[in-house]
Amino acid sequence: MTASVRTGTHIEGIHWVAEYLEAAHEIRVLREGFEVGFYDAPPSLFGEEAEAGSKSVADHRALEAALRAYLMQFVSQYDAEE
């Protein structure tokens, strides 16, 4: 599987990456280069725009922003569990 969108961020000195795998509608999360896991992408994460046809640059940026927001929320919950 190849990642259709990949984004990363540093949170409290730790590098996190999220990859959206469009074919499986899953999100792969990595922490400091090590895989944390694969998670089903929420159906509402990318909205109906994903069904609308070819993506423009703006669509790609919106998808990346949604993925980054998912990653930030995931990290806050993940850190709370530790």
Structure description:
By secondary structure, the protein is of the alpha+beta class. The protein has one domain (5-81). It contains one helix and four strands, in the order ββββα. The chain starts with a strand and ends with a helix.
Spatial order of the strands forming the largest sheet: 1-2-3-4
Q: Distance between the terminal alpha carbons, to the nearest Å?
A: 30 Å
- Helix/strand/pairing class, anyone? alpha+beta
Number of domains: 1
Q: What's the overall average pLDDT, rounded? A: 81
Order of helical and strand elements: EEEEH
Strand content: 25-35%
The number of helices is: 1
| CA radius of gyration | 13 Å
Helix content: 25-40%
User: What is the overall shape?
Assistant: globular
* Count of beta strands: 4
Q: Low-confidence runs (pLDDT<50, min 5 residues)?
A: none
Summarize the main sheet. 4 strands, antiparallel
Question: Secondary-structure blueprint of this entry?
Answer:
Elements: E1 5-11, E2 14-21, E3 26-31, E4 34-40, H1 57-81
Antiparallel strand pairs: 1-2, 2-3, 3-4
List keywords for this structure.
82 residues; 4 strands; four-stranded antiparallel sheet
In a nutshell, what does this entry contain?
This protein has one helix and four strands; from the N terminus they run ββββα.
